[in-house]
Design brief:
Layout: E1 6-9, E2 13-19, E3 22-30, H1 34-47, E4 53-59, E5 65-68, H2 78-87, E6 93-100, H3 107-125, E7 128-141, H4 146-152, E8 159-165, E9 172-179, H5 183-193, E10 201-211
Antiparallel strand pairs: 1-7, 2-3, 3-6, 4-5, 4-6, 7-9, 7-10, 8-9
Length: 214
Amino acid sequence: MENPTFQTLAGPGTAEIRVRGSTFRALAAPVCNEADARDVLAERQRLFFDATHNCSAWSLRDGTRRGNDAGEPSGSAGAPILAAIDGAELVDCIVVVTRYFGGTKLGVGGLVRAYAKVAAIALAEAPRRRGIPAVRLCVRYPYGHTAPVMRVLEQPDIYDIAHGFAPGGDAGEVTFSLPRAMESRVREALRDATAGDVIPEVVEEHIVYRDATV
């Protein structure tokens, strides 16, 4: 599917569980890149500097995936947290789980279950939103093409339309945004409507967020 939408978080979610004396506190939060994720992790490490462990995982839309056991046995924390993110079908988010050891060892299996459970609860508590890859285009058109250009732009998924004038004032100018998946179709419609006189230019690519559908 070209330029699919994706599910991410619209805000933080938290959870806390106790397992045989150990306390596990989880924060799920939206991030846009690794720098954001590392900032969230650093803030949790600062807040809970006295914790036994601050374990984490994040998954980004560009395919970046990280899991950090932070001193727990290998594969017992980062991997199950990341699996919880995958199970929730989310990207561009991080989960940090802070553990205070309660005096009783849980074993690798017990740790896996605890980290996975608290991460899943925090993710379920967080609000969601749908991300749509989008593009902003600029069109300069001879005034004689004003009507056909405006007709093409009369589509519900085209938004943030801004009208102006080309430098020199001898042509009209309009900038607008639309889902990237629509770009080829709109380009073709503008070309057909103006006998090839109008060629949109890309201003920027960005993400549009909508309320979650699930």
